[in-house]
């Protein structure tokens, strides 16, 4: 009797999980598909049934978004900023997380606590202080060299992105490095490998699943970031989220909805493609740490 009651409870639990997952997937898939359809509709189609299938492929929406709304330039800026930020982040975070997780030295506990404290800092709250600091540096550069280069600078924005993502990235990579056995390091030391060679030839290849997770999460963070990009890039070098908001405001005022949704697709498509490419590795990376522990 108890066994049959337990089976019924387990069956109801499974049904609930399946229903919840289907509802969640539906709530995500339907808006994405709707935006894809809306991006290829003519403007007159928006005044009819909003759920109707497009009459054809109106690619002029993407042409207008890329050329007239300069979404192509904003896309290029986002690629440059995001790519540089990920490179800067990995160059700093990988050695730092390896050292903090595998070595004990004077001040290591303080450094670990300092990094963990950075997890509680919201970037939105420090956007204005960062802007004022860069503005002062620009003013100093203008008095010394007749020109400033800290604001509206893609490299500087990438550096700030990497800096704000360091606490989370170091914390995640350090947690993974701690699960790796020390036998490989001891074997490399016996073979005569130094610390740098051991890190690059032995430990980093083993941490590849965790590194892929870090790259994906930070790509999504940098690609969709809006507050810092709006504050620190007041000139022409806008990134896609800022350019998209400008496009939406302009096209909504002109009641021209096709290019607006085309701009949304331009922002959304790279993240979907990247997720499809690394989906399998992402799933492996999220489970391998628990298996090793």
Automatic annotation (TrEMBL):
Domain of life: Bacteria
Keywords associated with the record: Cell membrane, Membrane, Transmembrane, Transmembrane helix, Transport
Pfam families: BPD_transp_1
SUPFAM superfamilies xref list: MetI-like (SSF161098)
Domain ABC transmembrane type-1: from-to ranges: 75-278
InterPro entries from the UniProt entry: BP-dep_ABC_trans_perm (IPR050901), MetI-like (IPR000515), MetI-like_sf (IPR035906)
Transmembrane segments annotated in the record for this chain: 12-37, 74-101, 113-135, 155-177, 198-223, 260-278
Compartments in which it is found: Cell membrane
Membrane topology: Multi-pass membrane protein
Principal location listed in the UniProt entry: membrane
PANTHER family for the chain: DIACETYLCHITOBIOSE UPTAKE SYSTEM PERMEASE PROTEIN NGCG (PTHR32243:SF24), MALTOSE TRANSPORT SYSTEM PERMEASE-RELATED (PTHR32243)
Family to which the UniProt record says this protein belongs: Belongs to the binding-protein-dependent transport system permease family.
Protein name per the record: Carbohydrate ABC transporter permease
């Amino acid at each position: 009797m108890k066994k049959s009651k337990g089976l019924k409870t387990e069956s109801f639990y499974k049904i609930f999980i399946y229903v919840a997952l289907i509802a969640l997937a539906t709530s995500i898939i339907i808006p994405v598909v709707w935006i894809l359809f809306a991006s290829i509709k003519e403007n007159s189609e928006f005044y009819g049934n909003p759920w109707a299938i497009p009459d054809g492929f109106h690619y002029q929406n993407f042409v207008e978004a890329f050329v007239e709304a300069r979404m192509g330039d904003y896309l290029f800026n986002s690629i440059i900023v995001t790519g540089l930020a990920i490179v800067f982040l990995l160059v700093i975070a990988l050695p730092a997380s390896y050292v903090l997780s595998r070595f004990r030295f004077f001040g290591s506990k303080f450094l670990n606590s300092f990094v963990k404290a950075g997890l509680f800092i919201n970037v939105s709250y420090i956007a204005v202080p960062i802007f004022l600091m860069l503005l002062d540096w620009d003013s100093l550069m203008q008095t010394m060299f007749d020109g400033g280069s800290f604001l509206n600078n893609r490299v500087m924005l990438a550096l700030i992105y990497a800096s704000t993502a360091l606490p989370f990235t170091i914390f995640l990579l350090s947690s993974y490095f701690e699960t790796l056995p020390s036998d490989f390091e001891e074997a490399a030391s016996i073979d005569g490998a130094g610390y740098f060679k051991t890190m690059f030839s032995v430990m980093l290849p083993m941490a590849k699943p965790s590194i892929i997770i870090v790259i994906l999460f930070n790509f999504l963070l940098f690609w969709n970031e809006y507050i810092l990009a709006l504050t620190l890039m007041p000139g022409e070098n806008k990134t896609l989220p800022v350019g998209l908001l400008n496009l939406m405001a302009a096209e909504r005022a002109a009641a021209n909805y096709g290019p607006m949704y085309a701009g949304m697709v331009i922002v959304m498509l790279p993240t979907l493609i990247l997720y499809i490419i690394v989906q399998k590795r992402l799933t492996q990376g999220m489970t391998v740490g628990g298996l090793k522990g």
